[in-house]
């Protein structure tokens, strides 16, 4: 008696692993604008990718301030902000009123990403102007992605725009800000993390053809998986034959070979020699 075929649970496990690999592949190919500090944009044949929070040899926290915040003071107003995270104050915390929506009076500034203090009637009054969950990234110059990006954060009524300008050699922290309207602030930070990584969209990396191939592969794997589960549990087929259309898949390599490698055969013709006999000629 021939040994029984492989049990289906092992095959199901292999198919599930294939499905997980396909999911990871689709995640990679579909990546565009990722987390709050990740951004990708294509220009021509180049794909430019930014990751402000990624560590570098010289800056282990990326664009994040190692103090836990950036601070800019202009006249009687003080602006605090942090990129890619909420602020953290181990020293010099904000001392202002109306800080309930950003940590409260005891932990003012620790539950938002941007805060401004203005002196009103002799009192420092705080206003939350940006949160980590409400942010948007765009290019500083649409025609030149290498110049840097703008991180804009929002609160219920206010906003802050931080232009992260590409400077691969040094950091220039903000020393001023601009107020437009009633509560929209803007400032500039020069940092190596504002410089993008670029790859050729047509050369390396994942193109549309690779994405299409992975999509088809995943759909095919899903078809085989669903069919195998149905035949295993509902038709009671507990061997490798539970895979739907098994004969087709077994013969597929030969079918492909037949299509792309046409069969060759010797062609024989006959010619008459000088003695009047017919001799076969192979060519």
Describe what you observe in this structure.
- The chain is of the alpha+beta class and 283 residues long.
- It contains three helices and 14 strands.
- It has a five-stranded mixed beta sheet with strand order 7-8-9-11-10, with no helix packed on it. A four-stranded antiparallel beta sheet has the order 3-4-5-6, with no helix packed on it.
- The two termini are 50 Å apart.
- Mean pLDDT is 80; it is low at 1-8, 24-35 and 264-276.
CATH superfamily of the largest domain: Mannose-6-phosphate receptor binding domain
Q: What helical percentage do the residues reach?
A: 10-25%
Which architecture of the largest domain would the CATH scheme give at its second level?
Distorted Sandwich
CATH topology of the largest domain: Cation-dependent Mannose-6-phosphate Receptor, Chain A
| Helical run tally | 3
The proportion of residues in beta strands is 25-35%
Subcellular location: Membrane
Protein name: Autophagy-related protein 27
Organism: Zea mays
Transmembrane segments: 206-230
Key structural traits:
signal, transmembrane, alpha+beta, 283 residues, 4-stranded antiparallel sheet, 14 strands, Cation-dependent Mannose-6-phosphate Receptor, Chain A, disordered N terminus, 22% helix, Autophagy-related protein 27, transmembrane helix, membrane
């Amino acid at each position: 008696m021939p040994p029984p075929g492989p049990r289906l649970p092992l095959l199901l496990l292999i198919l599930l692993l294939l499905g997980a690999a396909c999911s990871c592949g689709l995640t990679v190919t579909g990546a565009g604008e990722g987390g709050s500090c990740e951004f990708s944009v294509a220009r021509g044949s180049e794909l430019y990718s930014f990751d402000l929070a990624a560590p570098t040899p010289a800056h282990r926290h990326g664009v994040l301030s190692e103090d836990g915040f950036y601070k800019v003071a202009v006249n009687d107003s003080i602006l605090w902000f942090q990129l890619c995270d909420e602020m953290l104050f181990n020293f010099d915390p904000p001392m202002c009123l109306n800080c309930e929506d950003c940590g409260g009076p005891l932990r003012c500034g620790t539950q938002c990403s941007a805060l401004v203090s203005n002196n009103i009637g002799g009192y420092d009054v705080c206003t939350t102007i940006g949160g980590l969950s409400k942010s948007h990234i765009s290019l500083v110059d649409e025609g030149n992605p290498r110049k840097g990006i703008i991180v804009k954060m929002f609160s219920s009524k206010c906003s802050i725009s931080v232009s992260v300008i590409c400077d691969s050699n040094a950091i220039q922290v903000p020393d001023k800000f601009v107020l437009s309207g009633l509560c929209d602030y803007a400032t500039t930070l020069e940092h190596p993390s504002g410089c993008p990584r670029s790859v050729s969209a047509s050369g390396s990396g994942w193109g549309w053809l690779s994405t299409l191939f992975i999509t088809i592969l995943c759909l095919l794997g899903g078809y085989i998986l669903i069919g195998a589960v149905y035949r295993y549990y509902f038709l009671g087929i507990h061997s490798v034959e539970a895979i739907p259309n098994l004969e087709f898949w077994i013969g597929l390599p030969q079918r492909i070979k037949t299509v792309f490698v046409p069969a060759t055969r010797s062609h024989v013709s006959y010619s008459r020699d000088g003695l009047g006999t017919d001799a076969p000629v192979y060519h």
